[in-house]
Design a protein that fits this description.
Layout lengths: L2 H30 L8 H31 L8 E4 H12 L1 H6 L3 E4 L6 E4 L1 H17 L6 E9 L2 E9 L32 H11 L3 E6 L3 E9 L2
Parallel strand pairs: 2-4
Antiparallel strand pairs: 1-3, 4-5, 5-7, 6-7
Helix pairs in contact: 1-2, 3-5, 5-6
Length: about 230
């Protein structure tokens, strides 16, 4: 099987899975919200576990679809005028609020609501989803994630800081590479494909921006820079 056939297969399989997952997620959502009858505590606990695994699987399928597009050079931008906070970041935080709550992590959103840009809001949301999901997965239980922004000279730097194990300086350049995963003590059981940050970098690059990480004393700051209007 050559590389094109391999990528076509990935695209086909993940596209099929996406449709099936949408149906399963909807049914689980209906169950959780009592639309099909009341649940006892044990059933609610089981459904929360199922929901978390479905969230991970949905994110994985989405990442592999985008990975296939990137590798075939089919990741095209559909730019629109949008607000960074309201149209992208708020949506992501809302999507991952339950994952954060499960680890007693509080997400603090300090991004200015006035920041406007011309971008593919759907792709940027995927990029931010990956950064926020990582911050939650590798954050300490009961800690905080702080999302902030700083605008200057027609550009904005968005920072996602989480309290967790600081990344070693020798590992910083590995993070955004394809299929790269870092293993630190206490993170061995965390699920991941090693393509989320690679996809994030490709999306930010397509917008002529930059993305990087800065290890801190008690955590890590993932940052990306984009032009604003």
């Amino acid at each position: 099987m050559d590389n094109k056939q391999y990528l076509d297969l990935i695209g086909f399989v993940t596209h099929e899975l996406k449709g099936i997952l949408s149906s399963v997620v909807l049914n689980v959502y209906n169950l959780q919200n009592g639309l099909l009858g009341d649940l006892n505590p044990a059933q609610k606990k089981t459904l929360r576990s199922v929901s978390r695994n479905l969230d991970y699987l949905t994110s994985t399928v989405r990442n592999f679809l985008n990975f296939s597009r990137i590798e075939k050079d089919e990741l095209f931008l559909n730019k629109i005028r949008c607000f960074l906070k309201n149209d992208i970041i708020d949506e992501s935080i809302d999507s991952y609020s339950q994952s954060a709550a499960d680890q007693s992590i509080k997400i603090i959103n300090k991004v200015s609501p006035s920041l406007e840009l011309e971008a593919d809001s759907g792709l940027l949301q995927i990029a931010f989803n990956n950064l926020l999901s990582n911050a939650i997965k590798y954050g300490k239980e009961g800690s905080e994630i702080i999302v902030s922004s700083q605008a200057s000279g027609g550009e904005v730097v968005v920072e996602i800081y989480n309290q967790g194990e600081p990344i070693d300086s020798v590992d910083v350049d590995k993070l955004f590479k394809k299929f790269s995963r870092l293993n630190y003590r206490g993170t061995e059981k965390i699920k991941g494909t090693g393509i989320g940050l690679y996809i994030t970098k490709e999306i930010i690059d397509k917008h002529h921006g930059l993305v990087w990480v800065e290890p801190k004393k008690e955590g890590n700051s993932f940052k990306f820079k984009l032009k604003i209007v």
